[in-house]
Amino acid sequence: xxxxxxxxxxxxxxxxxxxxxxxxPAQVVVAEVxxxxxxxxxxxxxxxxxxxxxEAVLRTDPGxxxxxFNSINVTYYKIDGTAVAATDLPPLKxxxxxxxxxxxxxxNPLDPANSITQADQGHKVWVGRTTxxxxxxxxxxxxxxxxxxxxxxxxxxxxxxxxxxVDDANxxxxxxFFVPIVFSGLPGKS
Length: 190
Known about the structure:
mainly beta, 9 strands, three-stranded antiparallel sheet
């Protein structure tokens, strides 16, 4: 397979309008995570919950091909790192599609005439990025956060996210990251 990698890179570089790629398979990172927030007793009724949905900004490294994620697995953990019982917060396995574009060079970065200096970075690389709203706040999460018992969920929990998919070069791709879920307001009002 390693013998064919230069051929694949050359073939991708030869495609008109695609730019040059140097990272195959896709190199995806989480650039930013926005926590989920649940505020109990906020609104017109005592039982209302104000929810701010969590988001993640995914981007590809310079020279990387793009990737399409088509599934998401979610498991929940208490603040102390122990898993929340599946009877309280069942793990999620969802079909969900999002695409992160590739970050290509507009010219061949290996050509000495077009070498990219440190000062040129950010100016000569088209960075692929996307913002994903994560479907991790379920009715079970709402109920769990509204409990008045002292079982390790006073401040919040966090979700372990595993996204799986295929990159533009048809290699399997996966990324794992964590998202905080913060509870505040008057517990027991949900």
